[in-house]
Amino acid sequence: MTTRLGIGLPQNRQYDLGKDVPDVARAAEDIGYDSLWVYERALFPDPRTQPLYGVPGLPWPDAYRGVAEPLVTLTLAAAATERVELGTAVLVAPLHIPFQLAKQLATLDAASGGRVVAGLGSGWSLDEYAAAGVRPFEERGKVMDEVFEVCRAVWGPDPVVYEGGPITRIASAVVGPKPSRPIPILVPANSPRAMRRLVDHADGWLPYADGPAQVAEGWRQLQDLAAERGRTGPLRTVVRVNPDYTPKRYEGPDRRPFQGDVEQIVSDLMAYAGIGLDEFLVDVSWAARDAQELKDVAAEVYTTARAAGF
Protein backbone atom coordinates (compact mmCIF):
# COMPACT_ATOMS: atom_id res chain seq x y z
CA MET A 1 0.00 0.00 0.00
CA THR A 2 1.36 3.43 -0.95
CA THR A 3 1.91 5.90 1.87
CA ARG A 4 -0.29 8.97 1.59
CA LEU A 5 1.43 12.29 0.92
CA GLY A 6 0.37 15.81 1.85
CA ILE A 7 1.86 19.23 1.14
CA GLY A 8 1.88 22.53 3.05
CA LEU A 9 -0.03 25.46 1.58
CA PRO A 10 1.49 28.95 1.10
CA GLN A 11 0.78 31.08 4.19
CA ASN A 12 3.89 33.22 4.53
CA ARG A 13 4.42 36.84 3.60
CA GLN A 14 6.23 36.13 0.29
CA TYR A 15 2.96 34.89 -1.21
CA ASP A 16 -0.05 36.60 -2.78
CA LEU A 17 -2.60 34.68 -0.71
CA GLY A 18 -5.71 35.25 -2.80
CA LYS A 19 -3.94 34.10 -5.95
CA ASP A 20 -1.31 31.66 -4.70
CA VAL A 21 -3.33 29.54 -2.26
CA PRO A 22 -5.91 28.40 -4.86
CA ASP A 23 -3.16 28.04 -7.48
CA VAL A 24 -0.96 25.81 -5.31
CA ALA A 25 -3.98 23.86 -4.03
CA ARG A 26 -5.16 23.02 -7.56
CA ALA A 27 -1.65 22.12 -8.66
CA ALA A 28 -1.10 19.81 -5.67
CA GLU A 29 -4.38 18.01 -6.33
CA ASP A 30 -3.46 17.59 -10.01
CA ILE A 31 0.00 16.29 -9.08
CA GLY A 32 -1.61 13.57 -6.97
CA TYR A 33 -1.22 14.73 -3.39
CA ASP A 34 -3.74 13.33 -0.93
CA SER A 35 -3.98 16.32 1.40
CA LEU A 36 -3.25 20.02 1.90
CA TRP A 37 -2.15 21.43 5.24
CA VAL A 38 -1.85 24.69 7.15
CA TYR A 39 -0.32 25.65 10.48
CA GLU A 40 -0.97 28.41 13.00
CA ARG A 41 1.42 31.14 14.08
CA ALA A 42 -0.74 33.96 15.40
CA LEU A 43 1.97 36.59 15.85
CA PHE A 44 5.70 37.33 15.85
CA PRO A 45 6.93 39.06 19.03
CA ASP A 46 9.19 42.00 18.26
CA PRO A 47 11.34 42.31 20.26
CA ARG A 48 11.31 38.56 20.90
CA THR A 49 10.28 37.86 24.47
CA GLN A 50 10.50 34.07 24.40
CA PRO A 51 12.72 31.64 22.43
CA LEU A 52 11.19 29.40 19.78
CA TYR A 53 9.26 26.50 21.37
CA GLY A 54 10.55 27.81 24.71
CA VAL A 55 14.00 26.31 23.98
CA PRO A 56 16.74 28.61 25.32
CA GLY A 57 18.76 30.26 22.56
CA LEU A 58 16.52 29.10 19.71
CA PRO A 59 15.48 32.11 17.57
CA TRP A 60 12.17 32.63 15.85
CA PRO A 61 12.59 32.18 12.06
CA ASP A 62 11.72 35.14 9.86
CA ALA A 63 9.23 32.86 8.08
CA TYR A 64 6.94 33.31 11.10
CA ARG A 65 6.49 37.01 10.35
CA GLY A 66 3.00 37.39 8.93
CA VAL A 67 1.59 33.81 8.77
CA ALA A 68 -1.92 33.81 7.29
CA GLU A 69 -4.85 32.62 9.41
CA PRO A 70 -5.13 28.85 8.88
CA LEU A 71 -8.88 28.32 8.43
CA VAL A 72 -9.19 31.23 6.00
CA THR A 73 -6.31 29.69 4.04
CA LEU A 74 -8.02 26.28 4.01
CA THR A 75 -11.26 27.88 2.84
CA LEU A 76 -9.45 29.33 -0.19
CA ALA A 77 -8.01 25.88 -0.91
CA ALA A 78 -11.36 24.14 -0.43
CA ALA A 79 -13.02 26.33 -3.05
CA ALA A 80 -10.30 25.49 -5.58
CA THR A 81 -10.22 21.69 -5.11
CA GLU A 82 -12.51 18.65 -5.15
CA ARG A 83 -10.67 15.62 -3.79
CA VAL A 84 -7.81 16.42 -1.39
CA GLU A 85 -8.26 16.46 2.37
CA LEU A 86 -7.81 19.78 4.16
CA GLY A 87 -5.84 19.58 7.39
CA THR A 88 -4.44 21.73 10.18
CA ALA A 89 -1.01 20.80 11.51
CA VAL A 90 -1.56 22.27 13.91
CA LEU A 91 -4.24 24.67 14.98
CA VAL A 92 -3.46 26.01 18.48
CA ALA A 93 -6.86 25.15 19.92
CA PRO A 94 -6.72 27.11 23.22
CA LEU A 95 -6.28 30.37 21.28
CA HIS A 96 -9.86 29.94 20.03
CA ILE A 97 -13.31 30.08 21.62
CA PRO A 98 -14.32 26.37 21.58
CA PHE A 99 -17.87 26.89 20.28
CA GLN A 100 -16.77 29.20 17.47
CA LEU A 101 -13.95 26.83 16.48
CA ALA A 102 -16.35 23.89 16.35
CA LYS A 103 -18.73 25.89 14.13
CA GLN A 104 -15.94 26.98 11.78
CA LEU A 105 -14.61 23.46 11.33
CA ALA A 106 -18.11 22.04 10.81
CA THR A 107 -18.95 24.70 8.23
CA LEU A 108 -15.73 24.13 6.31
CA ASP A 109 -16.29 20.37 6.34
CA ALA A 110 -19.86 20.75 5.09
CA ALA A 111 -18.79 23.17 2.37
CA SER A 112 -15.91 20.97 1.20
CA GLY A 113 -17.88 17.74 1.10
CA GLY A 114 -16.32 16.10 4.17
CA ARG A 115 -12.60 16.78 3.68
CA VAL A 116 -11.47 18.47 6.92
CA VAL A 117 -8.89 16.94 9.28
CA ALA A 118 -8.55 18.85 12.56
CA GLY A 119 -4.99 18.68 13.86
CA LEU A 120 -5.12 20.40 17.26
CA GLY A 121 -2.28 21.32 19.59
CA SER A 122 -1.88 23.31 22.81
CA GLY A 123 0.91 25.62 21.62
CA TRP A 124 3.81 27.11 23.54
CA SER A 125 3.88 30.87 22.87
CA LEU A 126 3.05 32.97 25.93
CA ASP A 127 2.62 36.02 23.67
CA GLU A 128 -0.02 34.27 21.58
CA TYR A 129 -1.97 33.26 24.69
CA ALA A 130 -1.83 36.81 26.03
CA ALA A 131 -3.04 38.25 22.71
CA ALA A 132 -5.89 35.72 22.26
CA GLY A 133 -7.15 36.25 25.82
CA VAL A 134 -9.28 33.09 25.92
CA ARG A 135 -7.70 31.51 29.02
CA PRO A 136 -4.27 31.70 30.68
CA PHE A 137 -1.43 29.57 29.33
CA GLU A 138 -1.47 27.48 32.53
CA GLU A 139 -5.01 26.28 31.71
CA ARG A 140 -4.22 25.07 28.20
CA GLY A 141 -4.80 21.40 29.06
CA LYS A 142 -8.29 22.12 30.42
CA VAL A 143 -9.12 24.19 27.35
CA MET A 144 -7.92 21.39 25.05
CA ASP A 145 -10.27 18.97 26.82
CA GLU A 146 -13.13 21.43 26.47
CA VAL A 147 -12.44 21.94 22.76
CA PHE A 148 -12.65 18.17 22.20
CA GLU A 149 -15.92 17.93 24.13
CA VAL A 150 -17.54 20.98 22.52
CA CYS A 151 -16.58 19.84 19.02
CA ARG A 152 -18.09 16.41 19.58
CA ALA A 153 -21.26 17.98 20.98
CA VAL A 154 -21.67 20.63 18.25
CA TRP A 155 -20.92 18.12 15.49
CA GLY A 156 -23.40 15.63 16.94
CA PRO A 157 -27.20 15.46 16.82
CA ASP A 158 -29.48 18.30 17.90
CA PRO A 159 -30.43 19.53 20.39
CA VAL A 160 -26.88 20.30 21.49
CA VAL A 161 -26.34 20.58 25.26
CA TYR A 162 -23.00 21.33 26.91
CA GLU A 163 -22.08 22.56 30.38
CA GLY A 164 -18.83 20.76 31.08
CA GLY A 165 -16.14 23.44 30.82
CA PRO A 166 -15.22 26.88 32.13
CA ILE A 167 -15.81 28.65 28.79
CA THR A 168 -18.82 27.10 27.05
CA ARG A 169 -22.46 26.86 28.08
CA ILE A 170 -25.04 25.50 25.62
CA ALA A 171 -28.38 25.01 27.35
CA SER A 172 -30.22 23.36 24.45
CA ALA A 173 -29.89 24.45 20.86
CA VAL A 174 -29.99 23.50 17.21
CA VAL A 175 -26.47 24.08 15.86
CA GLY A 176 -25.70 23.80 12.16
CA PRO A 177 -24.43 23.13 9.66
CA LYS A 178 -23.23 19.71 10.71
CA PRO A 179 -20.06 18.21 9.25
CA SER A 180 -20.51 15.96 6.26
CA ARG A 181 -18.98 13.15 8.34
CA PRO A 182 -17.29 12.88 11.75
CA ILE A 183 -14.26 15.18 11.50
CA PRO A 184 -11.11 13.30 12.57
CA ILE A 185 -9.17 15.03 15.37
CA LEU A 186 -5.41 14.48 15.46
CA VAL A 187 -3.00 15.71 18.13
CA PRO A 188 0.83 15.81 18.35
CA ALA A 189 1.03 14.13 21.81
CA ASN A 190 4.68 13.98 22.86
CA SER A 191 4.16 13.60 26.62
CA PRO A 192 2.43 10.89 28.71
CA ARG A 193 -0.46 13.20 29.60
CA ALA A 194 -0.95 14.27 25.97
CA MET A 195 -0.82 10.64 24.84
CA ARG A 196 -3.55 9.73 27.34
CA ARG A 197 -5.66 12.61 26.03
CA LEU A 198 -5.12 11.36 22.47
CA VAL A 199 -6.05 7.76 23.27
CA ASP A 200 -9.15 8.80 25.21
CA HIS A 201 -10.47 11.65 23.03
CA ALA A 202 -8.82 11.91 19.61
CA ASP A 203 -8.69 9.95 16.37
CA GLY A 204 -5.00 10.00 15.57
CA TRP A 205 -1.44 11.12 16.07
CA LEU A 206 0.29 14.04 14.35
CA PRO A 207 3.96 13.93 15.37
CA TYR A 208 6.87 15.96 14.07
CA ALA A 209 9.51 14.04 12.11
CA ASP A 210 12.33 14.35 14.64
CA GLY A 211 14.00 11.11 13.56
CA PRO A 212 12.86 7.58 12.61
CA ALA A 213 13.92 6.06 15.93
CA GLN A 214 12.09 8.71 17.96
CA VAL A 215 8.91 8.49 15.88
CA ALA A 216 8.95 4.67 15.96
CA GLU A 217 9.34 4.68 19.74
CA GLY A 218 6.53 7.22 20.16
CA TRP A 219 4.27 5.12 17.94
CA ARG A 220 5.08 2.00 19.98
CA GLN A 221 4.31 3.80 23.26
CA LEU A 222 1.05 5.12 21.86
CA GLN A 223 -0.07 1.68 20.68
CA ASP A 224 0.83 0.15 24.06
CA LEU A 225 -1.11 2.87 25.86
CA ALA A 226 -4.13 2.35 23.62
CA ALA A 227 -4.13 -1.36 24.43
CA GLU A 228 -3.67 -0.63 28.14
CA ARG A 229 -6.62 1.78 28.19
CA GLY A 230 -8.85 -0.55 26.18
CA ARG A 231 -9.09 1.49 23.01
CA THR A 232 -10.35 -0.63 20.13
CA GLY A 233 -10.67 1.95 17.35
CA PRO A 234 -7.80 2.60 14.94
CA LEU A 235 -5.37 5.47 15.36
CA ARG A 236 -4.60 7.45 12.23
CA THR A 237 -1.05 8.78 11.82
CA VAL A 238 0.17 11.85 9.92
CA VAL A 239 3.83 12.84 10.31
CA ARG A 240 4.82 16.47 9.75
CA VAL A 241 8.11 16.94 7.88
CA ASN A 242 9.78 20.38 7.66
CA PRO A 243 12.79 19.66 5.44
CA ASP A 244 15.82 21.94 5.34
CA TYR A 245 15.09 22.97 1.77
CA THR A 246 17.43 25.66 0.46
CA PRO A 247 16.37 27.29 -2.82
CA LYS A 248 18.96 27.41 -5.57
CA ARG A 249 19.40 30.55 -7.65
CA TYR A 250 18.03 29.66 -11.05
CA GLU A 251 20.07 30.37 -14.15
CA GLY A 252 17.69 29.21 -16.85
CA PRO A 253 14.05 29.89 -17.72
CA ASP A 254 12.70 26.51 -16.60
CA ARG A 255 12.90 27.32 -12.83
CA ARG A 256 13.38 23.68 -11.92
CA PRO A 257 14.19 23.02 -8.25
CA PHE A 258 17.60 21.95 -7.06
CA GLN A 259 17.49 18.17 -7.53
CA GLY A 260 19.92 17.45 -4.71
CA ASP A 261 17.56 18.95 -2.14
CA VAL A 262 14.62 16.92 -3.42
CA GLU A 263 16.65 13.72 -3.32
CA GLN A 264 17.56 14.44 0.30
CA ILE A 265 13.92 15.06 1.22
CA VAL A 266 12.86 11.74 -0.31
CA SER A 267 15.81 9.94 1.26
CA ASP A 268 14.73 11.26 4.64
CA LEU A 269 11.16 10.13 4.00
CA MET A 270 12.29 6.63 3.05
CA ALA A 271 13.96 6.26 6.45
CA TYR A 272 10.46 6.22 8.00
CA ALA A 273 8.99 3.73 5.54
CA GLY A 274 9.15 0.64 7.76
CA ILE A 275 7.40 2.09 10.82
CA GLY A 276 3.89 1.54 9.46
CA LEU A 277 2.60 5.12 9.43
CA ASP A 278 -0.28 6.30 7.25
CA GLU A 279 0.71 9.67 5.85
CA PHE A 280 3.47 12.26 5.64
CA LEU A 281 2.99 16.00 5.32
CA VAL A 282 5.95 17.69 3.58
CA ASP A 283 6.03 21.46 4.11
CA VAL A 284 8.52 23.56 2.15
CA SER A 285 6.17 26.54 1.86
CA TRP A 286 8.14 28.57 4.40
CA ALA A 287 11.36 28.24 2.33
CA ALA A 288 10.13 28.53 -1.27
CA ARG A 289 10.50 32.04 -2.65
CA ASP A 290 7.21 32.09 -4.55
CA ALA A 291 4.28 29.93 -5.61
CA GLN A 292 5.94 28.70 -8.78
CA GLU A 293 8.93 27.38 -6.87
CA LEU A 294 6.64 25.76 -4.32
CA LYS A 295 4.73 23.98 -7.10
CA ASP A 296 7.97 22.89 -8.78
CA VAL A 297 9.38 21.42 -5.58
CA ALA A 298 6.06 19.78 -4.70
CA ALA A 299 5.88 18.11 -8.11
CA GLU A 300 9.43 16.80 -7.94
CA VAL A 301 9.10 15.55 -4.35
CA TYR A 302 5.93 13.66 -5.26
CA THR A 303 7.36 12.16 -8.47
CA THR A 304 10.65 11.17 -6.84
CA ALA A 305 8.96 9.68 -3.76
CA ARG A 306 6.54 7.61 -5.81
CA ALA A 307 9.34 6.42 -8.09
CA ALA A 308 11.22 5.28 -4.98
CA GLY A 309 8.19 3.25 -3.86
CA PHE A 310 7.15 5.54 -1.01
From TrEMBL:
Pfam families given in the database record: Bac_luciferase
Record-annotated Luciferase-like domain positions: 19-241
Gene3D superfamilies in alphabetical order: Luciferase-like domain
Alphabetical UniProt keywords: Oxidoreductase
EC number: 1.-.-.-
Sample GO molecular function, one term: oxidoreductase activity
Iron-sulfur is among the record's keywords: no
Protein name: LLM class F420-dependent oxidoreductase
